[in-house]
Amino acid sequence: MKLIEVKATDFWLFGGLKNFQAGEDTYREVLFPPDVIKFFHLTDITKCKPVGVFIKQEEELYLPAPADLLRPRKGEPGPLAVATLKEPPAYAITDLETDLLPVAPEVEIEGRKIKYEGASGFIPIKHLKEYLEKGTIEGNSSLIKTVADFVAFEPKVGLTLDFDRFNAQESRLYFTFVVRPKKGTSLAVLFDGNCEGLKGFYHIGGETRVSELKESTFPENLINRKVYVQKGNLYRFYLLTHTFVEGGLEKRKTLKVAGKEFEVVWFFSAGAEWISGFRKPGIKMLKPGGVMVLRALEEGEVDGFTFLEARTLLPVYKDKNSTEVDNEIKDLHLFGWNRGFLAPYNKLREV
After folding, report:
1. What pTM did the predictor assign?
2. In angstroms, rounded to a whole number, what is the distance separating the alpha carbons of residues 317 and 327?
3. Which of 12, 105, 235, 274 has its CB 3.0 to 4.6 Å from that of 205, i.e. a possible disulfide?
4. How far does Cα 268 stand from its chain's mean position?
């Protein structure tokens, strides 16, 4: 594994992951942080692939808060909490095929009960390690940062160019935003494989904007974790990258994570979106930060940083200028998707 810092020389232009056609659309969505697909061009992904994108600020790495992390509503004071699962009471009526339902913890401070909401945003990587090891995060809402803490979005008008004549095409204006990092902010991309030579200046994002790449450091104890999976026990799988699930995600569906069979108990969702682009396939994937709660159907020791197995048809062009499409069933994790952290679900609430 190798962590590469990506520092903008000016700004980034990261288009959204849904295919955009100037002239047919007038607004191009912007995405930050970007998906691993934005870094495919840096390497031969059969030998070296991006398997995680982080925000780096003042030497600290940040990543999406787990979707089961909660904070007090409306900025009220109080500790962070993690939603837990428990057996539904006898009076509960549900059509869900599950024996466990999520609940917020009951916390009372000075006679006042804390009401919780989802803690969307970004947390330091050291707190993700705490979450994986203890099933909770000690602290309050000040730990959670928003996109606005890292970057500013500046409006921009774009023109579609006719590359044969090197001038603008008529009636092809569109609007978007550029991403300008704040002081001390950069991106950090985790690569897996034989990744030599990733340093210097490269085009990253749209408009051939240049960024400087240099090697950085990643917490080895997070990457080298081992997990012993015991049949019948519960585990959580935190999604580090966009993740595709064959046939959709349903309760009691079985999945393979780290080579072991698991049953889906619950999914705390961070949302889903289309991964697409020019000359790229369109696939709807789960967003980073989602958390699957899984029941093990097998046992054995596995890597804590691992992947969910999924295969699908990826009709991609064989090379940049080719009109020939490569229609093959491919494993998504071989492209850097479907990566995440597996850990024991040690916060199962007793009834």
Report:
1. 0.88
2. 9
3. 12
4. 13
Which two tokens mark 149? 């803490």
Nearest to 163 by CA among 285, 270, 283, 22: 22
Nearest to 129 by CA among 346, 341, 347, 349: 341
Task: Give pLDDT tens digits for 257-279.
Answer: 999 999 999 999 999 888 765 55
Other beta carbons within 10 Å of 153: 15
176 neighbors 158 (Cβ within 8 angstroms): yes
Residue located via tokens 């009220």: 76
Q: How big is the chain by its Cα radius of gyration, in Å?
A: 21
Cα separation, 125 vs 70, in Å, equals 17
Domains of the chain, each with CATH number or no CATH? 2-63+147-218 (3.30.70.2660), 69-135 (no CATH), 222-344 (2.60.40)
Give the model confidence (pLDDT) of 198-221 as tens digits: 999 999 987 778 999 999 998 888
The strand pairing partners of 343, in sequence order, are 236
Tell me how far apart the alpha carbons of residues 203 and 184 are, in angstroms, rounded to a whole number. 20
The amino acid present at 76, given as its one-letter code, is: E
178 has which bridge partners?
154
